[in-house]
Specification:
Layout (H helix, E strand, L loop, with lengths): L1 H8 L5 H15 L9 H26 L45 H8 L29 H4 L8 H17 L3 H4 L3 H29 L12 H15 L1 E2 L5 E2 L1 H12 L4 H11 L4 H7 L4 H15 L3 H9 L8 H13 L5 H30 L3 H33 L1
Antiparallel strand pairs: 1-2
Helix pairs in contact: 1-2, 1-3, 2-3, 3-4, 6-17, 8-9, 8-10, 8-13, 8-14, 8-17, 9-16, 10-16, 11-12, 13-17, 14-16, 14-17, 15-16
Length: 414
């Protein structure tokens, strides 16, 4: 537990306190361990959960220094289960660890709830910081929102710049996530790819959700949407769905990723079964369960489709533009290069996928997507609030996905 905590926290003065908390939680939850053979993974799940709670408390403490008293929620100790988590450290029926999903009871306010209160506090009512995702027609911002969310500009910052700045702490946590350091072997990389494939797939659904609302996909065709926005989203779709495959043909980035998985020896049966079930008419929820998708991947995809189902174009556009991992850490890219050099013929497709990710997504699509988001939200504070809430939800879902992958990848590295 100490080693796993150190990997996630680095050299940290609170490491001993965290390990102490892990032992306390484990001892309190031990009577609820149903499968003694799952003790190691059960303890690792408690370790990940405890470290996350420590990071959340730090974020809350820093934030409270700058918040007016009327915006601070009252505290009330309640069981974790009342907030949709689980009090036994995150266990399934057979005793294996899973990450509790706080969105079960508060699906549109989870990001605010976790940032402000942590898992052992009750939120007294509607979130004072992040409004719930709304439909395409949004109401004016309530007076209870902090002024920083209702002003179009402040200190010369555009609404987009402000949203990016507000999301920076979450993005920083994503880029510094211990998962990247844990992927230190071909086995761990395969585990990562088997989870990440679902995120690569559901990104295409975000892209298509935006395209469907901004362009006409019906027959007979009629002009629809703002002209520049149509151009941007269609160009993004072209690159994502029909990119150069490096061999004189064309492929989607998702199919390129599947090719990379096969070449690396990663399992593709679950993602392929998922696609087959969708093709036979099953819903996303049903297909995820019936295909036995990894638990962390199921939670991530469901979070994405909650945003799509909200009907808010600003929310979907923000999840697509700001809620993605558009900057892959250099250390991860360097690992793939080393593995490809050491084992020619096994990681070349993944290396190409990452290169196309930089060239197409980061250098070309990201600027277009940001211009598109500015057009979608305009000067409406309520739209920008919807956008920021959705982006936070997407980034937090990505962090939860990485936490889940870390548990499995760490075991694969042993």
């Amino acid at each position: 537990m100490t080693r796993a905590s150190r990997r996630m926290m680095g050299p940290d003065g609170e490491l001993d306190d965290v390990v102490h908390d892990i032992f306390v939680r484990a001892l309190e939850s031990l009577p609820r361990l149903r499968d003694p053979s799952a003790l190691k993974s059960w303890l690792f799940g408690i370790t990940v959960r405890t470290v996350r709670i420590r990071f959340q408390k730090r974020t809350r403490q820093r934030w409270l220094r700058f918040v007016a008293p009327e915006h601070v929620p009252e505290q009330a100790s309640v069981p974790v289960t009342e907030l949709g988590g689980d009090s036994d450290g995150g266990l399934t029926a057979n005793g294996t660890p899973v990450l509790g999903d706080l969105r079960t009871r508060h699906p549109m306010r989870a990001s605010c709830l976790r940032r402000l209160t942590g898992p052992a506090l009750r939120h007294p009512g509607p979130c004072a910081l992040t409004p719930p995702l709304s439909g395409a027609t949004t109401k004016a911002a309530p007076r209870s929102w902090p002024e920083s969310l209702t002003r179009s500009t402040k200190g010369g910052m555009s609404p987009l710049d402000r949203a990016v700045a507000n999301l920076q702490p979450l993005r920083g946590r994503l880029l510094a996530h211990p998962l990247y350091a844990a992927i230190d072997s071909p086995g761990a990389l395969r585990v990562f790819m088997e989870h990440h494939a679902f995120a690569v797939w559901d990104f295409m659904s975000l892209v298509k959700a935006v395209q469907r609302q901004l362009t006409c996909l019906d027959v007979p065709w009629t002009p629809r949407g703002e002209r520049r926005s149509r151009r941007f989203i269609n160009e993004i779709v072209l690159g994502e769905e029909s990119d150069d495959d490096g061999a004189g043909g064309f492929t989607s980035h998702f199919e390129l990723y599947l090719d990379a998985m096969r070449q690396a020896g990663a399992r593709t049966d679950r993602i392929e079964a998922f696609l087959d079930l969708l093709g036979h008419g099953e819903t996303v929820d049903e297909a995820l369960d019936h295909a036995d998708a990894p638990l962390a991947a199921r939670a991530f995809v469901r979070s994405t489709f909650r945003v799509i189902a909200s009907g808010s174009l600003a929310a979907v556009g923000a999840a697509f533009t700001l809620g993605r991992e558009d900057v892959i850490p250099d250390m991860f890219r360097a690992l793939v290069v080393r593995l490809d050099d050491a084992s020619p013929g096994h990681f070349g497709h993944l290396r190409r996928y990452l290169e196309r990710h930089v060239d197409v997504d980061e250098n070309r699509h990201a600027p277009m997507a940001r211009a598109l988001l500015e057009t979608l939200c305009g000067d409406e504070p309520a739209h920008w609030s919807d956008a920021e809430a959705a982006a936070k939800q997407a980034l937090e879902a990505r962090l939860a996905l990485w936490d889940g992958v870390l548990i499995i990848a760490d075991q694969a590295s042993v």
